[in-house]
């Protein structure tokens, strides 16, 4: 959950988001080192009056400043490609949920169970209970078991939407007539918030996403109660 004056990312709740945070720190450290080195060179050239003709024209220095950036780019590219391939992997999901975007709400279908589905609307401000978050709470949450691979099929019925939950490291566009898929694993129980991340009309900012990760026993109890209500 984001909080005011937060400078960094939200706490990771999935192994994928942890990998993304590690890569962010890795790349940011390289940027800091390059920035410090360039700043040192600029200050040194401005303040000193001593120069050497071998620095002004040297084959060795030209080789260094050609090869060194290539090595740095490789150090950034290899971890990035690894994470990209991890993000595309969907291995033996224990549960499949279809998220359908509408103007302006989400509907969820648990495709492993017959006729288990519901619409998820934002709770108006005047109906919020104490402790609930404005513009983020929904009347029905997407409930998933913790530490289980979850596949989410994402599509839309009218215009472009985007199903995004930052703390899970998940963001997938919902395109009418097209079925996209993504996957995640929640590493701990909790309630995780997201919002539509594609401008989709007048009420774009009023279609939040709430994912509630619970223990397997609690998920089975919720599942049985939901099936009884059908």
UniProtKB/TrEMBL annotation:
Record flagged with keyword Ion transport: no
Catalytic activity: 4 Fe(II)-[cytochrome c] + O2 + 8 H(+)(in) = 4 Fe(III)-[cytochrome c] + 2 H2O + 4 H(+)(out)
Domain Cytochrome oxidase subunit II transmembrane region profile, first and last residues per copy: 1-91
Cofactor remark from the record: Binds a copper A center.
Cofactor(s) required for function per UniProt: Cu cation
Family to which the UniProt record says this protein belongs: Belongs to the cytochrome c oxidase subunit 2 family.
Protein's UniProt name: Cytochrome c oxidase subunit 2
Protein's organism: Centropyge bispinosa (Twospined angelfish)
